[in-house]
Amino acid sequence: MDTRMLRPMIRERIQRRANDYPIKAMTPVAEEILRNRNLLFHGVSTLFKAFPILACKILVIANLNPKFCPEVYIGKEGHLIQTCRGYKRRAKNLVHQWTVGGLNDILVPVEAFHLRHMFQDVVKHHERFDLDRVPAVVELCWQAGTSPNDKDLNPTTITTTTNVDGNSIASDGVESLSTEELQSVAKRTLDAWEAFRSGVQKLLLVYPAKVCKHCSEVHIGPSGHLARNCGMFKFESWRGTHFWQKAKVDDLVPQKIVWRRRPQDPPVLLNEGRDFYGHAPAVVDLCTKAGVVAPVKYNCVMKIKGLPRHAQFNV
């Protein structure tokens, strides 16, 4: 069979598949995702004013790409666990230097190119500045049929807590909230977090999304873009070309795992007890600080009933 005769058929099929999207049954799921996203940003921006968040301020130089240490801790005093890689390329196992954290330290922003429609032409390298960058989850919901102009789903005014870019807007009166009110906010925030991630998982089963296996670049669409901005191999012969693979929920909504202090642990977590301490996603740990019980699925990593470091065993 002459393959040249099949080319028009293949091109026509590719053009017609755009008519199958967006899937109308998935549009309510996308709208619910944006509502839960707004509730999540509102709840976290409220809770982090009541519970201190610390972020490491040490500059890390890895793979010729300088950035700050991503470690985050929720508490008045930072831990002393030596997991910082420092400002030198080969440095490791250093104590973190803490500073005041913010909303982006808990809800890590992940951006992607905003496309006119899902099956438009592949973005070339010289076109990378012609397209807007929007939150990847918002782009996924827009391609799923939600309207970018819906102010209820995409707030842009200062009367709301977050705007379409995910930047927090200060909420007043947090200091006057009682313990019960903070617990209620934390409960709504944790429910929104679980529903948010669950909704993104549903959309990823229907709509294609790609992530580079060497960096955190995300692209919403059937094929990745051709912008050569991969920071890991930009000095190699392929000059920063991404290596795309299927994206997962954690690629679009990072959990940001943090060390968690339990009641049986010392006031300041020490490096000697790092094998005993638990972990938790930052949002979950922040909500439990307000008195909310975490879902059972996190008990394994949180080590709620685990032994403290000074526990002795009689053999």
UniProtKB/TrEMBL annotation:
Chain segments annotated as coiled-coil in the UniProt record: none
GO molecular function, one term: RNA binding
Sequence ranges assigned to domain APO in this UniProt record: 65-150, 211-296
Name of the protein: APO domain-containing protein
InterPro entries according to UniProt: APO_dom
